[in-house]
Design a protein that fits this description.
globular, mainly alpha, MetI-like fold, 12 helices, two-stranded antiparallel ribbon
Length: 300
C-alpha cells in the first residue's frame, strides 16, 4: 500500500511537471488555432448585416441561412467538387511519382548516401511556395519557357495554349510543390520494413515483383496513407495556384472563401463555406485514417 501511494505521489508530481512543460505550447495552440476556429464557427451561424453607419458587419443573430445557402447553391457545390477532384488528382499523381523515388532511396542507395539524397529532395523547401508556383507560370505561360523553346527550335509556329490555364497545369504545379511531403513519409515506412522478410519471400520462390506486391507494398501502406493525407488536406484549400496557374478562370473553394471574407466582406457566409469545406475534408480524411488503421492491423 505504501509503495502504491508513493508511486501515486510520484505520478502526480510528474504529471504536474509535464503539464507545466506543455502549458506554453498548449496556450500557443489555443491562441493560434482554437481561437480563430471558434471565431469562424460563431461567424458561420451569425447574420451578415450593417451597422447604423452603413458599414458591413456580422450581427450576433443566430441563423442557419448561411449553411442553407452553401449546401443548396449549385455554384458552391460545383466549386467544392472541383476542389475535391483537383486535390484527389494531385494526390494520386504525387504519391504515384513519390513512391518510386522513396523506394529507390530506401532500397538502392547506400546507407552512407541516404542523408544526401534526402537533403537533395528537401531543396524545394528552401524557396517560398509562392515563388515555386510563379515559376511554373513562367514555364507554362503563353510566352513561357516551353513555348519559347519550342518556337525557337521550329517545332511549333505559335504558342501552345493547352499547357496553361487549365486543370492539368494546376495538377502538375501542385504535384511538384508537394512531392517532398509525399516522399519522406513513404521513405520512413520503407525503411522500417525488415529486409529478412523480403529475402524469405524470394527464398520461397517468389519473384521480385510478387515479393513487392505481397510484402513491400502492404507494409509500406501506412506511409502511403500518411503521404495521401499530407498532400490531400492542404491542396483542397489552395487558392494561390488557381489564381496564378488557372488564371483566375478555375476558382476553387478557397478562392470563394477569400472572395467572401476579404473582397465582399461577407464574413458570415465565408465562414459557413469554410466550415462546410472543413467538414467534407474531415470526412474524406476519416476514410483514409480508417484505411491506415486497417493496414496497421494487417501489418501486425
Amino acid at each position: 500500500m505504501a509503495k502504491s501511494q508513493g508511486l501515486a505521489r510520484l505520478g502526480g508530481a510528474e504529471g504536474r511537471s509535464g503539464l507545466l512543460l506543455i502549458s506554453p505550447t498548449l496556450l500557443y495552440a489555443l491562441l493560434l488555432l482554437a481561437a480563430p476556429l471558434g471565431t469562424v464557427l460563431l461567424f458561420s451561424i451569425f447574420t451578415d448585416g450593417r451597422t447604423p453607419t452603413g458599414a458591413k458587419t456580422v450581427l450576433a443573430i443566430p441563423t442557419l441561412q448561411n449553411y442553407v445557402e452553401v449546401w443548396t447553391n449549385q455554384i458552391y457545390q460545383r466549386l467544392m467538387m472541383r476542389s475535391l477532384s483537383v486535390s484527389l488528382s494531385v494526390t494520386l499523381v504525387t504519391v504515384a511519382l513519390a513512391y518510386p523515388v522513396a523506394y529507390f532511396v530506401s532500397f538502392h542507395v547506400a546507407p552512407s548516401k541516404k542523408s544526401l539524397w534526402l537533403f537533395l529532395i528537401t531543396i524545394p523547401f528552401w524557396t517560398s511556395y509562392l515563388i515555386r508556383v510563379f515559376l511554373w507560370k513562367v514555364i507554362l505561360g503563353y510566352n513561357g519557357v516551353i513555348n519559347s523553346g519550342l518556337m525557337s527550335l521550329g517545332i511549333i509556329s505559335e504558342p501552345i495554349t493547352a499547357i496553361n490555364y487549365n486543370v492539368q497545369a494546376m495538377v502538375m504545379t501542385l504535384a511538384h510543390a508537394y512531392a517532398p511531403f509525399a516522399i519522406l513519409p513513404i521513405f520512413v515506412a520503407l525503411e522500417k520494413i525488415d529486409r529478412s522478410l523480403l529475402e524469405a519471400g524470394q527464398d520461397l520462390g517468389e519473384s521480385r515483383f510478387m515479393t513487392f506486391v505481397r510484402v513491400t507494398l502492404p507494409l509500406s501502406m501506412p506511409g502511403v496513407i500518411a503521404a495521401v493525407l499530407i498532400v490531400f488536406i492542404p491542396t483542397v484549400g489552395d487558392y494561390v495556384t488557381p489564381d496564378l496557374i488557372g488564371g483566375g478562370k478555375l476558382p476553387m473553394i478557397a478562392n470563394v472563401i477569400e472572395l467572401q471574407m476579404l473582397k465582399q466582406n461577407n464574413k458570415a457566409l465565408g465562414s459557413a463555406v469554410a466550415v462546410s469545406a472543413m467538414l467534407i475534408v474531415a470526412l474524406v480524411t476519416l476514410v483514409f485514417l480508417l484505411l491506415n488503421r486497417r493496414f496497421l492491423k494487417g501489418g501486425k
